[in-house]
## 1
Amino acid sequence: SPTSPLPRTDLLGSIDVLYLAMSCLQGRPQMAAYLALARLGADGIQLTPGNHPSPGFKAFLRGSRLSFRVHDGFSWHAYRAPTTRDDGTLVRPDHEGPWSLHPPEMPSPESASPRQGPWSLHPPEMPSPKRLFSSGAGAQPPQRPHVGSPGRAPHRSTPPRNQTAQLDAFLGDVASPEPAPCSSTSPRDLTDQLDSFLGAAASEGAIVETMYSGYLLDTGEALCHAMDRGARLAVDIAHLHLQETAGQLDPGVRRRLEEYDGVAEVHVSANDGRSDAHRPLRADSPGLGWAHARLRAGTPVVLECYMHRLSDDERRRQVDIARGEMA
């Protein structure tokens, strides 16, 4: 019936479903962010971490006609909640809607590789006697204050002979032909960790977001592995742009991803290819045309650009651009 509280998708059948992420106004109280976003004409709201809890917010949403999805570590009671336990199992937010989440942060093999080229470094930090004691005849080290006195505890000193031994050990290490490499995680270990995470996500019915360097699922190879496993993916076009700019995503993998049946959600914002800046969309933002096609085919699309400095008219313009209504 026209007065039913069901979301638009249930009322009108399979239609375009555009969501606004609460992170569009990250840092605001949940209630304030919701009220500002709900009036912009989107079909639903994605509940995301990063907004301060508002008393009564959960009960307030029960009367909403909008559709809801939940993302990553959203919580009704905290700014951000953990998504994994120590044993690797996932912690589902207290919401029954579709749930997408980030893979774990993880150094990629490229970022964890041994150092290359010339390398300079600081010696260990250590208080020297010259800084501890005043100069001149009869100088004495500072005295420990009596218990209960307002004076500060003295600096600890290291005898000059011990300092010389430590300096010799340090100089010997840096003079060695090969400096010790940074700790690394092997590709096999990363694949095992990705498999474990994808299995945990599948067991919870969670949708896994494509990411960028520093996370699992940050390269074309990892994306292929996830598709081979049949993972349900939330494809973030801004993150794909970062992967492409970094040379981590080749055109063939991108085409496969764009045709993949397991794309369950699409996230849209813009960046300059250097950082995940969540900039407002432009009509020519990379990947936006594909996102429009997915939206028309019924895949939920989530707009997540930062809107703090935009007027209401500019915010509505972002909704129009995300829908493909740019005339």
Note: The mean pLDDT is 83.
## 2
Amino acid sequence: MKAITLEVNTAEINQGNIEECCHFEGQIKGSPNKEFTTQAEVGDMIIWNGVSTTSENDLVNITFINWEDGKEIFGKRQLKGNDDEPELVVGKVLHNTLENDVDQNENEIHNNFKYKISFTVKKYGEENIDGFDTYKIDPKIQVNR
């Protein structure tokens, strides 16, 4: 099981500051979220979960993983959350991201799986009859043999 944990400043996040308020566990400080790449192997189970960095009572719900570009490593373009609280998404890697080619140094060429994580933030004690804002962030996965 491989976990991808999205850490969110739930106290300050809004649609205009997603990049500043979100990062992944283990991400190099200051690197853009779209460059965060997870290494995986065919057969790996990947679990996406979210946590608040500002309140242990706030919920970060991962609602969808949506294919954006590259090989469809999960065999479908969308993985849906489990509808729990906090909500998370689980997917099994079925295919690698290798191209059928090597570069001039005999290195295997990868076509990374680019995807969007859709998530919501539910602040403790906050009721929202209109629903919660959905945020999106777009990292990558590279799958080896």
Note: Helices lie at 18-21.
